[in-house]
Hints:
Layout: E1 3-5, H1 7-16, H2 21-28, H3 32-40, H4 47-57, E2 65-68
Antiparallel strand pairs: 1-2
Amino acid sequence: MPLRSDGVELRRRRELLGLTATEFAKRAGFTLTHVSQVELGNSNAGPRYLLAAAKILDCEIEEITAGAMPIRPRVGSATAAGAS
């Protein structure tokens, strides 16, 4: 099950290290826009981002996630249509 990133915690830890969002984005290999969207909670980080962030922030992935994301049925699937 995919993990939901904790944007507030990611930003807090980044700032504690004295890294700007631009510096963090460059070190992590992502765009500044993506970093900002993750920290604001508008976008989920994804596994590659979480691995890079945990390494940069010197923490475990579990410390920068907010639990598992709920699985939503795909539109048009039998489950979404209510069929069993």
